[in-house]
Amino acid sequence: MIALQSYVQGRWVTGTGEPKSLHDPATEAVLGTVCPQGIDHAGALAWARDVGGPALRELGFQRRGEILKSLSAKLHEHRDELIEISGRNGGNTRGDAKFDLDGASGTLAAYGNLAASLPAGNHLPDGDGVQLGRTPRFWGQHILTSRPGVALHINAFNFPAWGMGEKMACALLAGVPVIEKAGTASAMLAWRIAQLVVDSGLLPAGAFQFVGGSVSGMLDLLSPMDCVAFTGSSATGALIRGNKNLVARNVRVNIEADSINPAVLGPDVDLGGDTFTQFIANVATDMTQKAGQKCTAVRRIFVPQDLVGEVVEALRERLLATKVGNPADGDVRMGPVASREQLHDVRLGMNQLLTVAEALLGGPQPIQDRGYFVAPTLLRAKDAAADVLHALEVFGPCATVIPYDGSAAAAVLACNRGGGGLVASVYSDDRAFVEAVVLGIAPWHGRVWLGSEKTHGQALGPGAVLPQSVHGGPGRAGGGEELGGLRGLAFYQQRTAIQGDRAVVGRVFGNESAGN
Predict the structure, then answer these.
(1) Cβ neighbours for 135, distance < 8 A, ≥ 6 positions apart
(2) 256 is catalytic
(3) Angle of helix 53-77 relative to helix 79-90, nearest 10 degrees?
């Protein structure tokens, strides 16, 4: 049995306090433990600010980008080993494990490649310069510079590799050292990745630290130049956002929380066409991939009233073909949820939804004698306006078919009842319908994914988070934003307006090669 350690102040440290067991969610076997306390929070923060930050910023954008690419290669080199750990401690099938790990290595590589187009130093012009006075001599230019603090990353259990990798990529490229907190249930994978990062020797001392236990006390020690990026439940996100020290010192906080993501089928869609095929395939994948434990998974399926029967039949066929079981078995396509606590929450949530919906397939009842298994569960709303359908995220393989009248206005109203989401998907080849729905739901969603005849077979599904596009959403989704190419660095940078002689401001800080 493995006792997970934390890596702080340049050394591996064993925690203290009551140990928490880490399980194989398919067999319930205990694989290891992690202790929540015993970490010198103040020392870890000082080590990052005083040692890691200066050394990291001395490298400049391009050298930091080269390091990110090398870290990506290191993860890929150990891919098979990491897939095996992901299966044992996360309950992931091989395909689900690759989805997580390749997301991490791919994002690190993408930001490494992005760095090649950036200047060698540590500041970026933010837009073009602008004349501020009677003549161009008095000039203004916004710039982005690295903030001299530390990034505390509190990651979720469902994507221990990808969640950590995407946050690291943006912060490290921006020149900010990181402290990575793993989601406890699947911490063995994050811990092994941390070992690989440390053993690689690629990052300067203090640029990377890893905590397997609690970081609650660390929040009370953060300063104005530090930041917190959190992924998890809205309840925990609210506690972090309301921390007295973070509020008093105006520490930047980025929250990615609950999201009751909608998928909308347009009334024009041909049931025998590629758009319909894509819709069914993507919804079924989102319901079963990672056992539905994705922040981007579809939870509400909006279908024109006269197409509900055909949609239900097609989804049932796909879901019934999904074998559930121990991911160590090669023919299994969906494993268990990550923990006993998660299983409890999923069953509780399903029972709440069943007060306003009927089960067409699956349900909260046990399907195995051992392990944290739950069946793919398809529900149909009895009352499309019931609040619980639009307010409760069941973080598992569960989604609800909700009929609507087929109009763009009704689709917009239904989607936005979710109170803010990470991603909405719309399937239609009617451009007028698509335009009306997109413009209606865009303010309430961080991303809108469009499925059509032209994208069939050409696009990754809406559940994939790509480094080129922003990830985050307003309202219930937390109000945060990550990734999006260079936009992902802005959270770790300070925007400053420089005003003065254009010959200096334009040439030194702007995009101009020479001043006037």
Answers:
(1) none
(2) yes
(3) 90
Q: Which of 166, 180, 256, 482 is catalytic?
A: 256
Structural domain of residue 160, as residue ranges? 41-257+479-509
CA angle in degrees (0–180, nearest 5) for 76-80-83: 100
Report phi then psi at 117, rounded to 5: -90, 0
How many residues in the chain?
516
**Which candidate in 227, 295, 398, 415 is catalytic?**
295
Residues 379 and 266 occupy one common structural domain: yes
- Concatenating the DSSP letter of every residue in 420-487 gives SEEEEEEE-S-HHHHHHHHHHHGGGEEEEEEE-TTTTTTS--TTPPPTTSEE--SGGG-S--EESGGG
pLDDT (tens digit, 9 = 90+) per residue, 303-331?
A: 999 999 999 999 999 999 999 999 999 89
Specify whether 295 is catalytic. yes
* Those residues with Cβ within 8 angstroms of residue 357's Cβ, 6 or more apart along the chain or in another chain: 379, 380, 381, 382, 386, 389, 400
Calpha distance 497→161 (Å, rounded): 37
- Mean pLDDT, rounded, for 169-182: 97
**Same domain, yes or no, for 411 and 444?**
yes
Would you say the pTM of this structure is higher than 0.90?
Answer: yes
